[in-house]
C-alpha cells in the first residue's frame, strides 16, 4: 500500500510558519500583511473558495478585505477597483477570484494587478521570473506542492516527472518548478499520443486535468509518487462505478449524497501501485490556500 501524502497536515505546518512570520513582522512594529480579495458575481463555488481563504487569513493573522462587485459589473469597474488596490499602500496582496462572470476578461484583470501584489503569481512578469529561475511570486498550487514534496524528502533530481495538464495556473508552472529541481520533465495534455504509456514513464506523476478518475492504476509506474491536483464532483453513478471500483466508500457517499468529490487519479487503484499518493480531498486543495498565505507574507516584506 502506498503512503498517503497528507496535504492537510502539511498545509497546517505551512500556515503555522506563516503565522510565525506575521508575528515577527508585527513584533518589529509593522502592521500585519493585508490581502485584498476581489469577488465578482455570486458563483457559489467561488464564495466557498473565498471563505476558505479569508479563514486562513484569520488563522495566520493576515488582514483580509473583501471587495464584492455584482455579476453585471463592467470590465472598467473591475479594472478601476484593481487600480485603487494597486495604489493602496495598506494592501500587500490582491487576489481576483476566478472564474469571472461571462463577458469579463480574466487575463485583462490579472495582468492589471501590480506584479509585487500578484499573490496568485499569474502576472506575466512573475511567470517570466519563474521561467528565468529568479525570485518572484509563484503560482500557489505548484509552489505549495513543491514545498510538500521537499518536506516529505522525496527525491526530484534526475527523476522522470510527467505533468498532466498545461494550464498557466498549474501545469506549466509545475513543470518549470520541477525542472528547476533537476527533474526530467514531460508535459502531457489532451493531444498527447498514448497517454497511459507516457504516464507509465513517470517516477513522479502530477495530474492537473479536471477529468474525474482519468488516471488508472495501470497508467502508474510501480513505486511512483502521484500528486493529484484535480478536484472534480462526480454525480453519475455509471462513471462512479467504474472509477471507484477500489473505493467503495466514495460510491456509498455518492449514493447517499448525490455527489462526491474526487481527483483526476483513481485513488484506490493508485494506492495499490504507487509509492505515495495525495488524496482528494485533503491533498493539494489545502496546500493551495497555504501557498497563498505564504505569498501574501512574502508580498508584504
Ligand atoms: P484547465 O482546464 O485549465 O487545464 C486542463 C489541462 O488538462 C489542459 O492542459 C488540457 O489539455 C488537459 N486535459 C484535459 N482533458 C485531458 C485528457 N482527457 N487527457 C489529457 N489531458 C487533458 O485546468 P486547471 O489546470 O486550471 O485545473 C486542473 C484541475 O485542477 C481541475 O480539476 C481544477 O479544479 C484543479 N485545481 C485544483 C487546485 C487545488 O487547489 N487543488 C487549484 C487549481 C486547479 P489541453 O491544453 O490540450 O486542452
Topology:
Layout: E1 3-4, H1 7-27, E2 34-40, H2 44-60, E3 63-69, H3 75-87, E4 93-96, H4 106-112, H5 124-132, H6 140-151, E5 160-164, H7 171-180, E6 184-188, H8 195-200, E7 204-207, E8 225-228, E9 232-234, H9 237-243, H10 248-257, E10 260-262, H11 267-273, E11 276-277, H12 284-300
Parallel strand pairs: 1-11, 2-3, 2-4, 5-6, 5-7, 7-8, 8-11
Antiparallel strand pairs: 9-10
Bound molecules: NADPH dihydro-nicotinamide-adenine-dinucleotide phosphate.
Proportion in β-strands? 15-25%
In DSSP terms (H or I, runs of 4 or more residues), the helix count works out at 12
Small-molecule binders: NADPH dihydro-nicotinamide-adenine-dinucleotide phosphate
Strand order of the largest sheet: 1-11-8-7-5-6
Helix and strand content put the structural class at alpha/beta
- Stated plainly, the CATH topology of the largest domain is called Rossmann fold
CA radius of gyration is 20 Å
Count of distinct strands: 11
- Spans of at least 5 consecutive residues whose pLDDT stays below 50 are none
- Helix coverage percent: 40-55%
**What coarse outline follows from CA principal-axis ratios?**
globular
Give the name of the CATH architecture of the largest domain: 3-Layer(aba) Sandwich
Overall tally of domains: 2
CATH homologous superfamily classification of the largest domain: NAD(P)-binding Rossmann-like Domain
Order of helices and strands: EHEHEHEHHHEHEHEEEHHEHEH
Largest sheet report:
6 strands, parallel
Task: Using the coordinates above, name the CATH class of the largest domain.
Answer: Alpha Beta
Mean pLDDT: 97
Ends distance = 43 Å
